[in-house]
Write a structure and sequence with these properties.
- By secondary structure, the chain is α+β, with helices and mostly antiparallel strands.
- The protein has one domain: 2-Layer Sandwich (Alpha-D-Glucose-1,6-Bisphosphate, Chain A, domain 4).
- The chain has four helices and seven strands, in the order βααββββββαα.
- Strand 5 and strand 6 form a beta hairpin.
- Helix 2 crosses helix 4.
- Pfam families: AHSA1.
Length: about 150
């Protein structure tokens, strides 16, 4: 069976509402990126993500040092529960990779599940060019840890 998704789960001593609110701010994505790929928020990107269909842009650096821009198309916006988006090259349609963050309340905190799902990618050239997932589980975990540190600092 072919693997087409990667999920990293982390328990956090923070309520879902606080975690979700932080992720609705694109600047937080750049500030907490554990992959080293996000350079910042694109000009014109809203300060806050507010719903499905919204696009927030990020400035990126590829593994080979090439700089590029990404438009993230919000696909799921369930306050305090789940936020998901499909990245795409600036001005291009998404290829089918979806990033999602899910927040499940647990006894004294929240179970965070970050998933990269590439099961809908049909572009053979994309699949031949990139090894998926493009961000390792360790780098996703570093992103979650950085988000939790940012929240702890207030």
């Amino acid at each position: 069976m072919t693997v087409t998704a990667q999920t990293v789960t982390v328990f956090a001593d923070a309520p879902p509402a606080v975690l979700f609110e932080a992720l609705t701010r694109p600047a937080v994505h750049a500030a907490t990126d554990g992959s080293g790929m996000l350079r910042g928020v694109s000009e014109g990107t809203p300060d806050t993500i507010t719903g499905v269909g919204q696009i927030f842009g990020m400035e990126m650096t590829a593994e080979d040092g090439r700089e590029y821009s990404v438009d993230n198309h919000v696909t799921v916006f369930e306050p305090d529960t789940r936020l998901a988006w499909l990245p795409a090259g600036r001005g291009k349609p998404p290829v089918g990779v979806e990033w999602s963050w899910e927040f499940t309340p647990e006894d004294s905190g929240t179970l965070i599940a970050v998933t990269c799902d590439w099961s809908r990618v049909r572009d053979e050239a994309y699949l031949a060019r990139f090894t998926l997932p493009r961000v390792s589980a360790e780098k996703v975990r570093a992103t979650v840890d950085a988000l939790l540190e940012l929240i702890a600092r207030g």
